[in-house]
Every structure is written in structure tokens, then in C-alpha cells.
Design goal:
heterodimer, A: alpha+beta, 4 domains, 10-stranded mixed sheet, 22 strands, 56% helix, B: mainly beta, AttH-like fold, 10-stranded antiparallel sheet, globular, disordered N terminus
Chain lengths: 841, 361
């Protein structure tokens, strides 16, 4: 066994590497995600501190503060702490990042927080006794602010120094009074008095959050029910569990998809093990036969091949675990916990390694290798010792037609599985479909190879080399299939992924053109443009046409990540003019507010056009009418578009934060920008951010590419492994035919004719692999596009074919096939022909 | 001139400091306590939110059905903070209400106490200006139409649920309710007492509810400038005399332990009242108890010596037990000793403040 491996290190190494890569990817994705989840859970816990329960506003507009005494007096509630929660940033200018402010300002009543969330009180550096002996007035100092360590670092100030904070369009100067010890190191939190927050940041009468503590011994379910009965539409109960579920829902689809891709890589590894083991078994058939004759049981042989597979898998899996750990550490350091997906902003979590996943991924690697060894082992056990001992060559009779029904059946089953619905919001049957198709495609390879080669049978009549090559491949399709399965598996997966990514990127590109038709965008992060300012901007020279809008996060369900409420003018008769509407539209009955859902929102919450749904906006009837669905790739958690007139009527909020405008002929972006800036009140002018549409497109596509960085990496790895597998298999098969070449030399075939034969054989094999891999990959890409993506990301797309990639892939595979066959052939032919023939007898 | 310049500089500095937060804060104006303001009830039982500090102090002795003696204290405080009066937020901390309750049970051997604190507003913490009606969450002190007070205080390891029925008219302290607290006329408070309140109710302690009866004393006092800047604390005693009389005596101490001011009153059973001035009240110390927790050294046993027109009278005060210290520093409050004391022919409460750190009022 050891000798066998020493003779063919390339094959063994590629097989083990393939297993290692599969295990490494799966393990790394798992580790990174586990760490990110852990970080998220910790962040939730530390901000919640010891609160048993929180009531959150569904939108940043908050809810009426009158809810606070109502909840505080609810039976079973021991203490209630009201909180004003604002998104903010340091300084007065516009923030540099597109994502906006990272600082969370919490306005609390320290007297209430003391008994509910003491972690929010912080350490105030100088506990100066106030003028009145019984009450420490410093506790209520309206200019004092307490910062978390991360916020202090971001502010660049020291305790005791002044710092300016901008939120809700207002900039206020505070004095850093102390450090918040409870927050995790990554969170930027600033805590100040609730009355100051309400007054200075324009939030009078509103709260965003109430933290609650239960009376000891109270039944949490009963208390929750009592609370729920008292909640208005724009507030909802949030527990630590629902918060964690929300974080989980946010990334689950992305995570599961990556894990599945890793599993596919592992599957490819399994096929490569199969290739390697089959060849090795074929080569050692006489040796095995001898062992059988010498008295070794069939079971013993089986065991030997199995042990080889296990060793291969074990080494590969162990290597994979180490590799995965390294990849995870590197990724966490450089990309953050969201794998470049953009879900967890600004957290660099610590790595968490639990023993169970280590065992699971090791076993997965082992099982893949063992399954890959299963068929070759059975074959080795089946061999008739007598015939095999003489090694009469290929035991396959060229006249038996390879059966295709096995593979075709699997392919059909795979196709059927694609039509099944999602399970727990995950496209499990979609992945099953892909796995079945892969297995079916590989199983159908001998049959397919013969079908593809039959028309060529006569083509090589004039040339001995070509004729020999075609006849050999046609006559021994099973052996060809052994070499092909690795190629087909890796090629088809690669093609499927490439088609999916190309389709998505193309659709996103089109969509960007549709939603960004104007020339210039601008926005403010907090505060906004009132009606008068808007009118003034619209009249400004250089502005031909302008649309104002506002987007604010809204919580439809405590378990789900918040979606986005998009407020903009929508032409109710012609919604297609305002939104990239897909499918049919409906007109709202009189008196009911129409909304248009983004595709992900419609799928996530299960709403259809023509239905009614509840939108938790303060004031008025919360029931709205779903008038249409529009395409959106930007907000994966969903978006709801509403006409601005309806929004202002329902909420009384007349501020808009974003605008997109087209320039009048002759006006330049730069000059118009300055004109608009001059039109704005000073506070807004300081923080307004302008974007040119071209720039936005580039940013959007860059974000897209970075979020698919890992996918691209997987693709590259699949290509490399696939090519390595092809090379190793070809060279092994060629070296095994020394005897055949000797024979050919004896009957007068020239050395260069053999080399040509090998080149043709390799090229043909590569070509068959490309055709099969492309076909299979295209089929699987349709499953990814029409099943996996809609079910996990809730968006659809149109298929685009990356033809350039296909062409280079085909050339690379055919060249690799021919090239390696020739290289290996030269080595095999270097032996003296006579000795080669003799040696074998 | 230099003074004017300095002032201008200060104003400029203040303006620069607050430039970002709009204009200068509007701070509250605290009225001074003035003579010649007659108290009128029931409105003066209620809150006086313009003044800086106010309290309603109920202390007394209780007897359980099985004959055991307990001491109790229920106090509600109101504090007006020096914050920007323009802030229209319902949470603006213009008024802070807080309460302390203590239970002295010799079987426990130390004071059980707890407290509540909240900013006034939103119905959760309120103090009425019409009558005594102060609420902080589930704690309250309330005067009914029949003149009876009820108090409820729910602590971590005890609950007081008590009703107090007046048996005597209001006792106006000082000059018709104006009680001097220091050498300057403004260092004074409006102050009246209700001694010999008849107590009924229940006390809940860990193992069970005990019905109690007893006798209590209510002090209601409000002021804006209570203490002289040199003062560090005060000693106060209120005794219900067995013959129906009532003694109030206090002294304000400086850092050296000397009296900066003293005063009080002695009302006889027939209602004749002697006002006690700085020359009329003396405290002597016979025994000091040192708190093992705070290190405070409290004169828990000693004599109160009072000079009246009819001669000198003395009461030797002995505490129900030594450890009746109340430490509310965790919630930003003071440390003080508030304990049940007895004297021959009298029972009441002794308050000792400023023995751990100076108290500023």
C-alpha cells in the first residue's frame, strides 16, 4: 500500500487535498459564522444587560412615551426603564462611510436603569456630590455623556474633554463624563440623560425602547401576554431569544449556501478519491489476485482498500481542519464576521472553536473518502483470482453497451427534487437536486461517452493514432468514465456557480440602471429636508427634475431582521414609472393605503399582490394594501415602498432624507452641488453627502463583488482541484499502459504515433468532460437560479451565460487532458519496448 | 473695573462653552423661606415644588400583637434640581422624588431599610400640591379627607402598611411654622409636626405578617437654604411624652462638633408651647457606637437638656438597639443614623446626620 502511494504521489496528494479543501471550506464557514453569531449574541446581551424583556419601537420614529407608565404598572413588572435610542455620529460633518453613523446614543433615566440595566450606568470618573445633599445632581447633568471604550476611541477624546455628537440632524457638544464598562469592546455606545436626548435631538414625547424586569416569581408567558395586550401597533416585544433568532435569520441563507458549496467541494473530493482508488485497484489487480490465491479472504481485500481510503480521508480531513482554522482566522481578521456579506457592520469577533464541529467535519471528510473507495473496493473483491492473476487486460468487453438508465434515473430524480418547496426557509431540496444531478451525471458518464464517441468512430480512418485513440475510448468507456467523473464533477459545479453569479451580477447591473436613472444623489443621515427646503432645492438652477425620499428601518416581526420602509412619490396609477415593478399590479380599494413590496419582502412575509397586511406605523389604520411587487437586490431583508403623501398623513413626519435629481442641460454636477449646498440651512449643509450616479453604481458593484469574494475563491479552488485531478488521473492511466505501448511498438507503431494517440485520447477525454460538465453545470445552474436563490435570498434573476469563461474552461480542460497524457506517455515510452512487454509477463 | 472685566471674561467663557447647545440654560430660582407666611392646611400638607428641598418624615414605635417593640421610619423626599427649566421633556429631571423606609426590630439587631427614587412625572412619581399625596411607583404617603395618613413602603425584606390618625392639633415649629436653622435669617425652613399619631396597620417581615399598633410622629419641612456653609450635619430628636406632651430638639453641628445653631419646642399636654432657641437646647454624649460598615461614630446614647420658662428638663436617651444606621449611598443618598430611642416617660426617634461625610443642604 505504502509502495503504491510512493509510486503515485500526485494522485494520492490530489485526492487528499480535495478532501482537505472541502473540509477546510466547510469548517471555516462554520467557524466564522459561529464566531459572528456569538459576537452578535454577546452584543445583544450586553446592551440588554439584565433586562428580562424589551419593548422596541418598530421604526426609529419610536412610540408614544405614554406607553412607559402603562407598562411600568403592568402586573408582573418589577421595574421599567425608558430609553431613547438614536443612530448618531461624532462631529458635525458628513460621515465618510456609506453605511452612516455607527454610534448609538442611548438616552436613559439612570434612576430607572439602575434596577433594570445597571450596565448602562457606566463609571463616572468624578462622583461629585451636588449642591443638594440627598440627590447627586451630577447624575442628571445634561452636558455629561458616558461613552463605551470603542466610542471613546472613535471620538479621539479623553474623559473630561468635550465631544460633539450629531443625531437627528442636530449637533450638540457634551463632556465625556466617564466610561461605560458593560458594553463589549466593539460597540460604540454613548449614554446620556433621557430628557436631554429627547429635547436636544428632537425626540420629545417619543421613546424607542423600554427595558423591563419581571417581579421575581412572575410567569414570563403571562406577563408577556399582559404586555402584548397593552402594546400599540408601533411597538413590539423583543426577548434575547427573538433577538438571537433575528441575527440568525439575517445570515442563515447566506451561511447555509456557503456550507452547501463547501459540501459540494467535499463531494468533488469524494469523486477524486474514487478516481484515484479505482486506478490504483485496477493497477494492482494481479497483486490482489495473488493475495487471494495465497489465501486472503475477499473481505480482507475489501478492508485493505477501505483502510487506504480511510487513511486518505483522515489525512485530508485533518489537513482540512487545520487549513479551515487558518482560513477562518484570516477571514475574521481581514473581512469581518460576515464573510464580506455586509451583515454585521464593524465587528471583528473572536474565534470560537467547539469540539463537536471539529468531529463532525472530520467525519464528513472521512465519509467522503470512504464512499469514494467503496466502489473500487467492491470491484477489487469481485475480481476472479484466476483471470486477474494473468492480467488479461481490460476486463470490459467492448461489445457490452454501458447501461445509462442508472444515471438517467438519478438525473430525473434530481430534476424532480428541484420542484419541491423550501424546508425551514432553506432550499434543502434544491441542494438535494444538485447532489442527485451530480451523482446521475457521473453515473451516466460511460453511456454518454459512448454516445458522444460513436459518430467519431469512422473519423480516424486515415490516421492510425487517431483511429486507435477513438476506438480505445469507445471500447472502454468505463475506464474513461473513471477519469472523467472528477472532471465532470468539478467542471459542472464550477459552471453552475459561474452561471449563477454571472446571472445575478447582470441582473443587479440592469436593476441599478433602472433605479439610478438620474445624475446626482444627495442625502443627510439625520434630520432631513422639510417641505420648504425641498421646494427651494427644486427651484435651484441646474435642477431639471428631482425626487425626494426617505428610508427608515421598520420591524415587522421581532424574529425577523428589520426591513426598510421606502417613502417616495409613487404614481398610484402607473407604479412602474416610480419603481421597478415586476408581475401584476392591483389598485387599492378606496380608503386603504397602498404599498408596494420588494420581492424579498413579499417572499419573506408571504404577501401577495391584492392582499392586505399590517404595517406598524403610528397613527391611523395599520392595515395597508399590497398593490405590487418590485425587484430589489439591495435590501435582502425586504423593503416596503409607500407614497410620501400617505406616509406624511399616517405619521405626521414631513422630513425627507434622500434626493435624486437630473441636471438640466448645460449644468454640471459640481456646480449644481454647490448651488444646492448654498440653498440648505447651515446645519444640513454641513452634513449633506452628494453621490454621482456613476459613482454609486461602481460602489454597488464593488460591494456585490466583495460579498461574492468567497464564492469567487471557491470557484478558483474548484478549477485548480479539477485540473489537478485531471492531470493526476491521466498520468496514472497512461503510466498503467506501459505494456500496451510496448505491444504497439512491437507491431510497428512509431513512438510519435503513440504520442499523438495519447494526445488525441487526452484531448477527447477533456472534450467529453467539458461537454458533459457544461451540460450538467447548466442544468444545475438553473436549479441555483430558480430554486436555491429565490428560496434562500428571495430574489429572482435572468440567466446570463459567461461564454468567455466557458471557452477558456474548455480550452484549459482539453489542453490539460492532452498535455498531461503526452507528458505521462513520454515517460511511459522511455522504457525499452521489449523490456516493457516482457516485464509484464 | 477689574472686577467688571473679570465678569465679562467669565460670561464670554460661559457663552463659548454653551455655544453649541443653543443659548444659556435657564436655571430655576429657589424662593427663600420668609417670615409672615402663615401655613394653611390642607394645601401645606402637600408639596411645595418651588423650594429646593422638602420632606415628610414619619417615625414611631410599634407593638406587635405578641407584645414586641419595633421602630419604623417612612420618609418621602422631594428635591428640585438646578437644571435648565426650558427642557419641555416629560422626563426633564426638574423634581426628584425619593423615599426611605426603615424597620428596627431588636430580634434582627440591625436596621432593615430600602428606598425608591424617581424623577417626578408621567404619573409614576408625583407629589400633589393640594394635600399630602406622594407616590413613587408602589410606595406612597397619602392624607385622606378624614385627616388620616396612610403609608405603604415595600422593601426587599419587609413591607410597611400603616395608617396614622392624628390625636392632637398641628404643632407649628419655630415662629408660627418658620424654623431657624442657622445664624442667617434665610437659613430656615417651614416646619410643622404632628406628634402622638395613633398607628394601626401591619408589618410584613420574611416569615409573616404582624398586626401592629403604636404611636408615631410626622414632620413636614421645606426650604431652599437649610444649612450654614460651615455645617456638616445635625442631631434631631422628637419625643412623644407619656403625659401627652411633645419635645422637639435639634442642633446643627460644624466640623469640630460644636453647635452652630440649636432649637426646638416643648408642647405640654394642655397645648401650651415653649419655643426653644439656641440657648435652650443642649445634647450630651454618654456612649458612642461605631458602625462596622461605614466607620461612622454615632453618639447613640446621651442626654437632651432643655431650658424652659419653668426650669431645666432632662431626658436620657437610650436606643432600642445600636445598629440603626441607614446607608443609601448606593442610590446616591447620604449615610445617617435614624433610630428608635426611649427615655424615662417618653419614646421617640433620634436622627444623627453628617457623621460619615458632611451633608450639604
Amino acid at each position: 500500500m505504502v509502495g503504491e502511494w510512493r509510486d503515485h504521489p500526485g494522485r494520492v496528494v490530489t485526492a487528499a487535498l480535495a478532501i482537505a479543501i472541502g473540509v477546510a471550506l466547510g469548517f471555516a464557514v462554520h467557524l466564522i459564522n459561529g464566531s459572528a453569531q456569538n459576537e452578535l449574541a454577546q452584543a445583544v446581551r450586553s446592551v440588554n444587560a439584565d433586562a428580562d424583556l424589551q419593548v422596541h419601537a418598530t421604526t426609529p420614529l419610536g412610540f408614544d412615551e405614554a406607553l412607559y407608565p402603562v407598562l411600568a404598572r403592568t402586573p408582573g413588572i418589577a421595574a421599567a426603564s425608558p430609553v431613547v435610542e438614536l443612530s448618531a455620529r461624532f462631529g458635525t460633518g458628513p460621515s465618510r462611510s456609506l453605511e452612516g453613523g455607527r454610534l448609538t446614543v442611548l438616552g436613559i433615566d439612570p434612576l430607572r436603569a439602575a434596577s433594570v440595566t445597571p450596565a448602562l450606568l457606566g463609571r463616572v470618573s468624578a462622583p461629585a456630590q451636588g449642591a443638594s445633599g440627598f440627590v447627586p445632581e451630577s447624575l442628571f447633568d445634561p452636558r455629561a455623556i458616558v461613552l463605551s471604550p470603542a466610542a471613546l476611541a472613535a471620538s479621539g477624546r479623553q474623559v473630561g474633554e468635550a465631544v460633539t455628537i450629531t443625531a437627528a440632524g442636530r449637533s450638540v457638544e457634551f463632556v465625556v463624563a466617564g466610561l461605560l464598562s458593560g458594553a463589549t469592546s466593539e460597540q460604540q455606545v454613548a449614554v446620556l440623560d433621557i430628557a436631554t436626548a429627547q429635547w436636544l435631538f428632537g425626540s420629545l414625547g417619543r421613546l424607542q425602547r423600554i427595558d423591563l424586569k419581571f417581579t421575581p416569581g412572575a410567569d414570563p408567558a403571562a406577563v408577556q401576554a399582559a404586555l402584548r395586550a397593552r402594546l400599540p401597533a408601533d411597538a413590539q416585544i423583543v426577548t434575547a431569544q427573538s433577538e438571537a433568532r433575528r441575527g440568525d435569520n439575517l445570515t442563515r441563507a447566506y451561511r447555509v449556501n456557503l456550507e452547501m458549496l463547501a459540501m459540494m467541494a467535499l463531494l468533488t473530493g469524494g469523486f477524486l478519491v474514487y478516481s484515484a482508488q479505482s486506478l490504483s485497484v485496477a493497477r494492482r489487480r494481479p497483486q490482489f489476485a495473488l493475495l487471494r490465491v495465497l489465501g486472503l479472504e475477499r473481505r480482507g481485500l475489501l478492508a485493505q482498500v477501505f483502510v487506504e481510503g480511510a487513511l486518505l480521508g483522515g489525512v485530508g480531513a485533518a489537513l482540512g481542519l487545520a487549513l479551515g482554522l487558518g482560513v477562518a482566522m484570516g477571514t475574521l481578521r481581514f473581512l469581518g464576521g460576515d464573510l464580506g456579506g455586509g451583515y454585521f457592520r464593524g465587528t471583528a469577533p473572536d474565534l470560537v472553536v467547539a469540539p463537536l464541529p471539529v468531529v463532525v467535519f472530520f467525519v464528513l471528510g472521512l465519509v467522503a473518502a470512504l464512499l469514494g473507495s467503496l466502489l473500487p473496493a467492491l470491484e477489487a473483491g469481485r475480481a476472479q483470482p484466476g483471470i486477474a492473476l494473468k492480467d488479461l487486460g481490460d476486463k470490459n468487453d467492448p461489445n457490452t453497451r454501458p447501461a445509462g438508465w442508472w444515471g438517467l434515473g438519478l438525473l430525473a430524480a434530481g430534476g424532480a427534487a428541484a420542484f419541491l418547496p423550501a424546508v425551514w426557509g432553506l432550499p434543502l431540496f434544491g441542494y438535494l437536486s444538485i447532489a442527485l444531478m451530480l451523482a446521475g451525471g457521473v453515473a451516466a458518464m460511460p453511456w454518454l461517452a459512448r454516445i458522444l464517441l460513436t459518430p467519431l468512430l469512422g473519423a480516424g480512418r486515415g490516421n492510425v493514432s487517431i483511429d486507435l485513440a477513438i476506438k480505445r475510448l469507445w471500447g472502454a468507456p468505463a475506464q474513461a468514465a473513471v477519469a472523467l467523473c472528477g472532471i465532470v464533477a468539478s467542471t459542472s459545479l464550477m459552471v453552475a456557480m459561474a452561471v449563477m453569479v454571472a446571472s445575478l451580477r447582470g441582473s443587479v447591473d440592469d436593476w441599478l440602471t433602472e433605479i439610478l436613472p438620474s445624475d446626482l444623489l444627495f442625502r443627510v443621515e439625520s434630520g432631513g429636508f422639510d417641505a420648504e427646503t425641498r421646494a427651494r432645492i427644486a427651484r435651484a438652477p441646474g435642477v431639471a427634475d428631482i425626487v425626494f425620499q426617505k428610508s427608515l428601518p421598520m420591524q415587522l416581526s421581532a424574529d425577523m431582521p428589520p426591513l426598510v420602509l421606502l417613502v417616495r412619490p409613487v404614481d398610484k396609477a402607473q407604479p412602474k414609472a416610480s419603481l421597478p415593478v415586476i408581475g401584476r399590479t392591483a389598485t387599492a380599494p378606496p380608503g386603504v393605503t397602498p404599498v408596494w413590496l420588494s420581492e424579498p419582502a413579499a417572499r419573506l412575509y408571504g404577501h401577495r399582490v391584492g392582499q392586505r397586511m399590517v404595517l406598524p406605523l403610528g397613527g391611523g389604520d395599520p392595515n395597508v394594501f399590497v398593490a405590487g411587487v418590485w425587484r430589489d437586490y439591495a435590501r435582502q431583508s425586504g423593503a416596503v415602498a409607500m407614497d410620501e403623501a400617505d406616509y406624511t398623513r399616517l405619521t405626521g413626519d414631513d422630513l425627507r432624507t434622500e434626493a435624486s435629481l437630473s441636471l438640466s442641460p448645460g449644468a454640471t454636477a459640481a456646480s449644481t452641488r454647490e448651488v444646492i449646498r448654498a440653498t440648505l440651512p447651515p446645519a444640513l449643509a454641513a452634513q449633506v453627502q452628494f453621490f454621482e450616479t456613476r459613482q454609486m453604481r461602481a460602489i454597488a458593484l464593488r460591494l456585490f463583488d466583495s460579498s461574492f469574494a468567497l464564492t469567487y475563491a471557491l470557484e478558483a479552488i474548484a478549477i485548480v482541484v479539477g485540473l489537478a485531478g485531471v492531470a493526476a488521473t491521466f498520468s496514472a492511466q497512461t503510466l498503467a499502459r506501459t505494456k500496451e505501448f510496448g505491444m504497439l511498438r512491437h507491431v510497428g507503431v512509431l513512438r510519435r504515433q503513440i504520442v499523438l494517440m495519447l494526445a488525441v485520447e487526452g484531448g477527447l477525454l477533456g472534450a467529453v468532460g467539458v461537454i458533459a460538465g457544461l451540460g450538467l453545470g447548466l442544468a444545475m445552474s438553473q436549479v441555483l437560479i430558480h430554486v436555491v436563490n429565490p428560496q434562500s435570498f428571495h430574489w429572482t434573476m435572468e440567466t446570463r451565460l459567461p461564454l468567455g469563461l466557458f471557452a477558456s474552461l474548455a480550452i484549459a480542460l482539453v489542453a490539460a487532458g492532452a498535455g498531461t497524457a503526452v507528458l505521462a506517455g513520454r515517460r511511459a515510452l522511455s522504457a525499452d519496448a521489449v523490456r516493457a512487454v516482457r516485464e509484464d509477463w | 473695573m477689574p472686577r467688571a472685566l473679570r465678569l465679562a471674561g467669565l460670561a464670554l467663557l460661559a457663552w463659548m462653552l454653551t455655544a453649541a447647545a443653543a443659548d444659556k440654560p435657564v436655571l430655576p430660582v429657589f424662593p427663600e423661606v420668609r417670615a409672615g407666611r402663615p401655613l394653611s392646611f390642607p394645601a401645606d400638607h402637600g408639596s411645595h415644588p418651588d423650594y429646593r428641598t422638602e420632606w415628610w418624615y414619619v417615625t414611631g414605635w410599634l407593638k406587635t400583637e405578641d407584645g414586641r417593640d419595633l421602630g419604623f421610619q417612612v420618609t418621602f423626599f422631594r428635591s428640585r434640581l438646578s437644571v435648565d427649566q426650558r427642557n419641555p421633556s416629560a422626563f426633564a429631571p426638574k423634581q426628584i422624588l425619593f423615599a426611605h423606609a426603615g424597620l428596627s426590630d431588636p430580634a434582627v439587631g440591625r436596621l432593615r431599610h430600602d428606598g425608591r427614587m424617581a424623577r417626578q412625572g408621567l404619573g409614576l412619581a408625583e407629589a400633589s400640591t393640594k394635600d399630602a399625596r406622594i407616590v413613587i411607583d408602589d410606595w406612597r404617603l397619602e392624607r385622606g379627607a378624614d385627616g388620616r395618613f396612610v403609608a405603604k413602603a415595600i422593601g426587599a425584606d419587609f413591607t410597611l402598611d400603616l395608617a396614622f390618625t392624628p390625636t392632637q392639633p398641628v404643632l407649628l415649629q419655630g415662629d408660627r411654622g418658620l424654623s431657624r436653622k442657622g445664624p442667617l435669617p434665610a437659613q430656615a425652613s417651614h416646619y410643622y409636626s404632628l406628634p402622638h399619631l395613633k398607628v394601626t396597620g401591619s408589618v410584613l417581615q420574611g416569615r409573616g405578617r404582624a398586626k401592629v399598633t403604636g404611636e408615631a410622629w410626622l414632620d413636614h419641612e421645606w426650604s431652599s437654604t437649610l444649612l450654614d456653609p460651615k455645617a456638616v450635619g445635625w442631631d434631631w430628636v422628637g419625643l412623644n411624652l407619656d403625659d401627652g406632651g411633645a419635645l422637639t430638639a435639634f442642633r446643627v453641628r460644624d466640623a469640630a462638633g460644636n453647635a452652630l445653631w440649636s432649637g426646638g419646642s416643648l408642647r405640654a399636654a394642655d397645648g401650651t408651647t415653649s419655643r426653644l432657641g439656641p440657648q435652650d437646647v443642649r445634647f450630651t454624649t454618654e456612649r458612642i457606637w461605631r458602625s462596622p460598615r461605614t466607620g461612622g461614630r454615632y453618639p447613640v446614647q446621651g442626654e437632651v437638656i432643655v431650658r424652659t420658662p419653668t426650669g431645666e428638663r432632662r431626658w436620657r436617651l437610650t436606643p432600642l438597639f445600636d445598629d440603626q444606621e441607614l446607608d443609601s449611598r448606593a442610590t446616591g443618598g447620604p449615610v445617617y443614623w435614624e433610630g428608635a430611642v426611649r427615655a424615662p416617660g417618653a419614646r421617640g426617634y433620634l436622627e444623627l446626620t453628617g457623621y460619615v461625610s458632611p451633608l450639604k443642604m
